[in-house]
Write a structure and sequence with these properties.
alpha+beta, five-stranded mixed beta sheet
Amino acid sequence: MPRWRQLADDEVTAKSGPHDLVTVADRGAERHLTSALTELLPGSVVVGEEGVHEDPSRYEALQGDAPVWIVDPVDGTRQFVRGEPGFCTLVALARGGTLYASWTYAPARGLMATARRGGGAWLNGVRLEAGSPGPGPLEVATSHPDFTDEDQKRALGALWTDGVDPRPCGSAGLEYLRIARGQLDAVAFSWELAWDHAAGLLLVTEAGGFQRTLADRPFSLTGHNTLPFTAARDEPTARRILGLLAAGRPQAA
């Protein structure tokens, strides 16, 4: 947080493209979390966004037997760089591809959401219940077009229809939190990097929500998901989104 709204120009760089930013805050936070979390749980490893960028082979730890901390040190780096409050830190604990706990921390908004497998979802000590959408169009956050291929664009484009009100997503972690709080009806995402989704998917599930890929399977942390996928406040909403996505795919024509 001391870096928020205090970044120098040389403390912000692009990784794979102009929309993929990293700052000294991202790297510093991940170093700190890596040290603290592995000390907290001896024998565990960390799969973090910045560490994997430096060494892609670290992502393979998701398929191993050791407990894995999945870390996104600053989810919403673009918002962080712009001095906006829409960013968070995401941590999830998994083993053998199964999620056991997650933490979503939005320090600029004073929010800490936690979830434990079978133990519910909580925000600042208050239990979360996603509920079901009310009357009116479904509010859906979607992948930004810059991060989709042509087939995915067509699938996501099917959401622009009567009864659905789609918009590009911000921080994925905060979008999942909005679903768990009943403030957003669903997301439809076209990428599967575990640090963006692990914490939020457990949070939504433990708040009573539902998630599936386009192959009608639960999202897999280890990859090879059929994309796009959705997470929603309840199963009927997720099924409706999946139906629209499937109808938009070229092979469905």
